[in-house]
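Chain A, query sequence.
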Amino acid sequence: MKIDERKFPILGCIENNKLTNKIFDMLDNSGYDEKGISDIKRSFNFFFGKPLQINYISSTIHQKIADTNNFVKAKSLLSNSPKATGLLLLPETILPDFSNIHNYVGADPKDYPINAILYSWLSANNHERISNKSQLENLQQKIKAGEKPPAGADWDRLIQDLQGGEDEWDEESRTLIIIPIDCNKVTQGTDQFHLISNDEIYGWEYSDQEGRAWYGKIHDYVMSFILFYNFTEAETHIIHGVDTGQSRRLKLNDEKFLNETKNNIEIIDITYFTKLIRTGEFGVSGHFRVQHFGPGLREAKIIFIDNYKKSGYTRGAKIDDK
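Chain A, predicted structure.
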């Protein structure tokens, strides 16, 4: 399979795994009014200048992580998990779940298809610092252009607050900020508030908290990926960009990949991602489990218990550490 800009136009907006201003061309294709475009532009400040981890999600893995129940018991591992800024390339188009959106909004999930997701997974403090800097720069530009504050607004006080910032109170918990994308357009259906979710409500029923009324299903998908990527025994294979002079081809499980972009892209080998443990004489359906290990059982990983109905054996994963 070719991984290229034709299949995922977002890759044409990324060079050497960093987002470029070409992303604004995609934003212009999205059909939003001037205010909508202005609101969405601020969301890209969480991504500019940061190296993006780009992962193509194979169909097999996609099926596993799309089911939140597979990983919800491991949600405690999300806190203090490795920070990342990345892009997920999906094997099929998915839709958000608007079942909790009020009927008067008139939102149709079919209007917001998604086949790629930009995500920022940082501490609450990090996201707040980036947001404050973005708001401050936007406000300073308005003042420089001669714009006056609206009635009741105290821009001087707001500037002081943004420059001072909040005390750093939380470096362990994580917040997730997403930008949904489909082909050559951004499919963000609401403001930045509704693109943010935190690790505490992963797996909860979608609600108005932290934007889950709009993108709860997509937040959970990305968080499931984060759990899968960091806590299963996955082996990643990098197919390099066209200008690197390194291999751009890969064959895994009879599937061939060719990278025709200027970015390095990771492919996860499904045959490496679990340890299969079969230990019984009765039928048990396949499921994921959190297994603690190490001194004091302080470390944890996710393993997959395969369907089994035979006397026991253990087959170790092909690698011990990712």
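Residues 276-315 form one domain. The chain is about 25% helix and 30% strand.
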